[in-house]
From TrEMBL, chain A:
<dbReference type="InterPro" id="IPR000131">
    <property type="entry name" value="ATP_synth_F1_gsu"/>
</dbReference>
<dbReference type="Pfam" id="PF00231">
    <property type="entry name" value="ATP-synt"/>
</dbReference>
<keyword id="KW-0813">Transport</keyword>
<dbReference type="GO" id="GO:0005743">
    <property type="term" value="C:mitochondrial inner membrane"/>
</dbReference>
<dbReference type="InterPro" id="IPR023632">
    <property type="entry name" value="ATP_synth_F1_gsu_CS"/>
</dbReference>
<keyword id="KW-0496">Mitochondrion</keyword>
<dbReference type="GO" id="GO:0046933">
    <property type="term" value="F:proton-transporting ATP synthase activity, rotational mechanism"/>
</dbReference>
<dbReference type="GO" id="GO:0045259">
    <property type="term" value="C:proton-transporting ATP synthase complex"/>
</dbReference>
<keyword id="KW-0066">ATP synthesis</keyword>
From TrEMBL, chain B:
<keyword id="KW-0139">CF(1)</keyword>
<keyword id="KW-0406">Ion transport</keyword>
<dbReference type="InterPro" id="IPR006721">
    <property type="entry name" value="ATP_synth_F1_esu_mt"/>
</dbReference>
<dbReference type="GO" id="GO:0005743">
    <property type="term" value="C:mitochondrial inner membrane"/>
</dbReference>
<comment type="similarity">
    <text>Belongs to the eukaryotic ATPase epsilon family.</text>
</comment>
<keyword id="KW-0375">Hydrogen ion transport</keyword>
<dbReference type="Pfam" id="PF04627">
    <property type="entry name" value="ATP-synt_Eps"/>
</dbReference>
<comment type="subunit">
    <text>F-type ATPases have 2 components, CF(1) - the catalytic core - and CF(0) - the membrane proton channel. CF(1) has five subunits: alpha(3), beta(3), gamma(1), delta(1), epsilon(1). CF(0) has three main subunits: a, b and c.</text>
</comment>
<keyword id="KW-0066">ATP synthesis</keyword>
Length: 323, 70
């Protein structure tokens, strides 16, 4: 009928309300598909509806990821706090010497394999690069050993000649001491070092992670530093049982210390990764919710505008017929 | 003074590090366990990671997934 023809004509002539500002204009640029006879745009509600559906799905996914990360965090957190007792006796015995000046430094950077975990990997890489600059100089050599895919991707961009080894797929099975100790053994066999610096994110709470550096000295360096006095200097006052020499004991201690510290560092980093992923997914869900609210408003506005325009056409058509 | 020859324990002379020595001892202890604890302990022994050594800014082709069990 004539009424239907008018309605179809009217829909094509629908102008998007002129009072919108530029951000909405950008959105309606995405939403509109066809141009009417005088270059007028018709905003289709179908496109807005599709976008709303996809944003809602994304929100569901990020909420689920947050739950998964929370449950994984609970499991790893207990083990992490228990593993802190591994390295504390070493620090009590040997002290902590982060500012030791040696020729061969190896920086072990611990990062995650998977993404969507916020900024923790970037902070670790930034600290590694700063440490690299600090420890490099004439006659000095610094190398990287990278655990995790994300660190490799970032460090390969500008320091690929200093990378010694790269280890991935560490978290395929839950982290255990045997795995980390085999890894530590592998690293010790393949790199020469005077000092090993392990960079990881220490887990303080679900929202705060502290980038930390743990330093482990080789036995020869310990000998050298013990001349300077301090904790290492008083090592000679210990009596050694069992017929081992001091050098032998120091060698065993250095290897075991590296293994323990690496285990704790890997656990702490895994904890931090879960916590960071939780907060990242949480803020992502919140953003998706806000986006959904804005889209709902746009949808309702365009729906009401099209209804109003239809009414106007009908009424003006009716009045044209009667008047 | 102690004799210079006997300063090194047998496992160090055989080329093992302290870490591999303690891992072997640990797996021997785990092998002495009885059934429910034995399978729980076996889960703690799984080792899997993929290592790739780099030379001159390029990873070498030999990246084998190390799957060892002691």
């Amino acid at each position: 009928m004539a009424m239907a023809a008018f309605r179809r004509e009217g829909r094509r002539l629908l102008l998007s309300p002129v009072s919108y500002n530029s951000s909405v204009a950008a959105r309606s640029a995405i939403l509109s598909d066809e141009l009417g006879p005088m270059g007028a745009r018709s905003v289709s509600t179908q496109a807005v509806r599709n976008r709303m559906k996809s944003v809602k799905n994304i929100q569901k996914i990020t909420k689920a990821m947050k739950m998964v990360a929370a449950s994984k965090l609970r499991a790893v957190q207990v083990r992490t706090e228990n593993s802190r007792g591994f390295w504390q006796p070493f620090t009590a015995l040997l002290g902590d010497n982060p500012s030791v000046d040696v020729k061969k430094n190896v920086i072990v950077t611990i990062t995650s394999d998977k993404g969507l975990c916020g900024g923790i990997n970037s902070t670790s890489v930034r600290v590694s690069k700063a440490l690299y600059k600090l420890t490099s100089g004439p006659e000095k050599e610094t190398k990287y050993v990278i655990l995790g895919e994300k660190g490799k991707v970032q460090l390969v961009r500008d320091s690929k000649n200093s990378i010694e080894m790269n280890i991935t797929e560490l978290q395929k099975n839950p982290l255990n001491y045997t795995q980390v100790s085999v890894l530590a053994d592998d690293i010790l066999k393949n790199v020469e070092y005077d000092a090993l610096r392990i960079i990881h994110n220490k887990f303080q709470s679900v929202v705060s992670f502290l980038p930390t550096v743990s330093t482990i000295l080789s036995p020869e360096t310990v000998e050298k530093e013990s001349e300077a006095g301090g904790k290492l200097g008083s090592l000679d006052s210990y009596e050694i049982e069992g017929g081992d020499t001091k050098a032998e004991v120091l060698q065993n201690l250095a290897e075991f210390q590296f293994s323990c510290v690496l285990f704790n560092a890997a656990l702490e980093n895994a904890c931090s990764e879960m916590g960071a992923r939780m907060s990242a997914m949480d803020s992502s869900s919140r953003n998706a919710g806000e986006m959904l609210d804005r889209l709902t408003l746009t949808y309702n506005r365009t729906r009401q505008a099209s209804i109003t325009t239809e009414l106007i056409e009908i009424i003006s058509g009716a009045s044209a017929l009667t008047g | 003074m102690a004799s210079t020859a006997a300063a090194v324990p047998f496992w160090r002379a055989a080329g093992m590090t302290y870490i591999s020595y303690s891992n072997i001892c640990a797996s021997l202890v785990r092998g002495c366990l009885k059934e429910p604890y034995r399978s729980e302990a076996a889960a703690r022994e799984k080792v899997h990671f993929a290592v790739s050594k780099w030379a001159n800014g390029k990873p070498e082709k030999s990246s084998n997934g190390l799957c060892l069990s002691f």
